[in-house]
Amino acid sequence: MKAKSKLEEQNEPLRIMIVDDDVEMGRMIARKLKSDAYTPELFDDPREALKAARAGCHALLITDIIMPGLDGIELMRQIRRFDFDVPIILLTGMPSIETAKKAVELGAFRYLTKPPESNELLSAVRKAAFAHRISKIRREAVALQGGHGYSPADLAGLDVALDYALESLWMAYQPIVRAADGSVFAYESLMRTQSEALPHPGAILSAAETLGRLEELGRRVREIAPLPFVGQGNDTMLFLNLHPRDLLDEKLLDWDTALGTLSTRTVLEITERASLDKVPNASETIAYLRAQRYRIALDDLGSGYAGLTSFAALEPDFVKLDVALVRDVDANKTKQKLIRSVVVLCRDMQIQVVAEGVETSSERDKCLELGVDLLQGFFIARPGKPFPQINW
């Protein structure tokens, strides 16, 4: 049999899944869709609908909200575990502001009252079918350009994607070495995950921030990052990134955690890109952490404009030069002058300077010449599972 062309596939009647335990209501909606040349498939059991949805053959899902066993909201969440694109129209016979708000928050394409008026239903279906096709084209275009085409399109998808990212979260470790002799001083822990939807730390952080789950993410990172260091007899340090919002979490201050037991060997990194001004009592929290013998690093120096505020609030033990300052420093006189100035100032304050992003031997040598204390970057070692071998 001859394979169908893309154009022929697009001209076929769209398959639409209808999920409603009220069979008569479902049949009525199906008749309206057939009259407009769609191909509806009716399910009165949401669990059977969930199984059918995994085939990815439907351009749209229309589901009742209130159903026994698996309601429409949860069905939407479950489908977002494997399909970020299919639009979902939620129906209810008992409309309320709260359910409407929940539907919109999760990213339902439309929220309609039962029985839906024909013109309203068909208008929503046409717009949803168009949105589905555009979404698929957008993902194909992203993939064609070498990008990642599977990011969630709504909060329901984002929520389940973050669930999986947290479940599969692991830490990679990148060595930080002494400039004097190339010996390992510390390892920075960096988030990694098996999630294709949230494939890098920036995507995970953005999702957690959007969903109000930064505290959960921070606790998970602080739970697993110290584990390779527990029970070690040496004095190798752990550098651990904090989001400024982590300073609001009381669990950060607990002694009785894996991280708490390693406080004397832990450096908490706070980026210059984020302002501490909106974190209540930030200075008091940092003072308490110091009392627990944590050390503090100001990360990404040179990337933002919060330097003075951050220095005053943090009084850092370490300053990490931003990658942009280190890149091509061997050939850039302006960068050399800036780094030399930072080194001189920090030495007076007994602050150690870390050059991040060292990728060539020439960059390494120039950083050594400029007097930085510590080095980190792909030339030294790429991040990996505990613990990567270094190149010197």
Q: Would you give an account of this structure?
A:
The chain is α/β, with parallel strands linked by helices. Helix content is 39%, strand content 18%. The chain has two domains: 6-144, Response regulator (Rossmann fold, 3-Layer(aba) Sandwich); 155-375, EAL domain (TIM Barrel). The strands form two sheets. The chain has an eight-stranded mixed beta barrel with strand order 6-7-8-9-10-11-12-13, surrounded by four helices.
Report the β-strand fraction as a percent range: 15-25%
Mean pLDDT: 85
CATH topology of the largest domain: TIM Barrel
**How many DSSP H or I helices?**
14
Order of helices and strands: HEHEHEHEHEHHEEHHEEHEHEHHEHE
Q: Tell me the domain tally.
A: 2
Count of distinct strands: 13
Amino-to-carboxy terminus distance? 62 Å
Strand order of the largest sheet: 6-7-8-9-10-11-12-13
- In CATH, the homologous superfamily of the largest domain goes by the name EAL domain
CATH first level of the largest domain: Alpha Beta
Architecture of the largest domain in CATH? Alpha-Beta Barrel
- What class do helices, strands and sheet pairing give? alpha/beta
Residues in helix, % = 25-40%
CA gyration radius, whole angstroms: 27 Å
Described by strand count, sense and barrel closure, the largest sheet is: 8 strands, mixed, barrel
Q: Based on Cα principal axes, name the global outline.
A: elongated
What ranges have pLDDT less than 50 throughout 5 or more consecutive residues? 1-9
